[in-house]
User: Fold this.
Amino acid sequence: MPLPRLITRSPITKKSAGFTLIELLVTLLLLATLATMSYRSLNVVLSARDRVNQQAVKWQQLGAFMNRFKQDVQLAAPYTVRRADTVQPAWHGRAGVDTARVNESAQELPQLEFSRFASVAGQDRLRRIGYTLNTQNELELWLWPGLDMLPGTEAARYVVLPGVSSITFEYMNAALLWVPIWPTAADDADIPRAVRFRLEMLDGDVLIRIFSLST
Assistant:
């Protein structure tokens, strides 16, 4: 009877599991590089989003101001007003806010001031309004309660546009010439034919707009 064969197997050598120190260092370096690139990309996206949002808000505010200004000037009324002992013209464009002051009270007056018809019948009234730039680089709307004002009557002030570096107004006279103040000695009209403003924002943007008036 033949003897069974004995099968012998060679021993299997096991390799050690895991990474070497160099492999770990390279992996960590790659992860750190990817994390830095991801952070920079995210930061760029967030910064771009913030700039877009800021620009959107700025142009929304500009649009709202221009719509309001257009409505106000096109409702200009040829009515003079009495303030203290003086009579103010229906449309009063001053050269600048620094020198525009009332002699009696040294109260500052706006760059542009005029009488305006009611914007909404039954909800508004004939009143005096003004536009000027304050010292905080904000464009203000001034609203007086009516036309003729008793001594000490002050206007309510509302910020209609922030971030304004400068604003200048010009007025078209009967000879179709632009003048920096209104009225002038050569113009006897109550209201100019048109008004033009040049508005410069703190970020450097410049806008020039012209609005015709119902004279």
